[in-house]
Structure prediction request, 320 residues.
Amino acid sequence: MEPLLAIEDLRTYFINKDVQVRAVDGIDLTVYPRQIVCIVGESGCGKSMTSLSIMRLVPKPRGQIVSGKIKFAGKDLVQLTEQQMSDIRGNEISMIFQEPMTALNPVLRVGEQITEVLIRHRKIGKREAMKRAVEMLRVVGVPRADEIVSEYPHQLSGGMRQRVMIAMAMVCDPKLLIADEPTTALDVTVQAQVLELMKRMRDDFGTAIILITHDLGVVAEMADHVVVMYAGQVVESVGADELFAHPLHPYTKGLMASIPSLDDEAEKLYSIPGTVPDAREFPVGCRFADRCPLVQTSCRERPPELREIRPGHLVRCGLV
Ligand SMILES: Nc1ncnc2c1ncn2[C@@H]1O[C@H](COP(=O)(O)OP(=O)(O)OP(=O)(O)O)[C@@H](O)[C@H]1O
Ligand SMILES: [Mg+2]
Prediction:
């Protein structure tokens, strides 16, 4: 099958005079139609910058895609003009942000925000767009959808706002949905409902999803494929079942050991020692070396390549 999205050696840096923050530093990522790909990794490893690069919403002027390709449905998004890109955004690719208030316009009623997307991309009339907005809100489980369309975002609860944002992201039936920590700010029941909803979008509409999360529980629940990022790079990329059965990279193993378990309450929760290296000056060798329990001298000498260790299982570690 042809991939829907194929990112090749993407580099997105923040450049300020002679300082370069290498937020995304040579990643490859492939998403097939209907696939749910989870990106995991600690804070600062480049997950959001990866998704903003796909949307071409990297904060300007310092943030720049410096090299690489983002092939989507036969086009390289990196090469598109702003106009061409805005035809794709919200239409073929849409995004759900962690904090809904950043994506929703506080001075527009819920209905107007959703219809705006439809009128723009689908060229349909106001009345029909409003009908479709109400339908979409019902699909995402908003009660009293016909009344909610006349309300402002601040009148809604956090969970309802999140649903409105999902409705907005889904209303044009995108081929790819990017969800950056979509449930972190929600309580667990609402979180489960929102995840269930995204799964249904995939099942019913065939939407491919990139789901960014800190939470390996969410990964276990949702992912077909998992990409583990560390310090701007992919360190492991593998099918979800295989990841949980045979994690190979020491960093992935560390993340897994950090999952709280219900049975051993008495035990101290494990956390990976140390912190992510500074993205302005990554070490020459393995970027995880300073925190790795298996580190050897050779690890610090040259950067490990991302290699296929078993069929479909890529790992960036010289020791596995
Ligand atoms: N506007 C900015 N200017 C300079 N550097 C930035 C900017 N935004 C992000 N960065 C840097 O880019 C790197 C990647 O950040 P990114 O936001 O992608 O991390 P993340 O994996 O999404 O983290 P989190 O889990 O906290 O959301 C970090 O080193 C961060 O400090
Ligand atoms: Mg982020």
Remarks:
- The chain has two domains: 5-92+174-315, 100-173.
- Residues 5-92+174-315 form a domain with the Rossmann fold fold (CATH 3.40.50.300).
- Residues 14, 21, 23, 41, 43-49, 59, 62, 279 surround adenosine-5'-triphosphate (ligand 1) (CB under 6 Å).
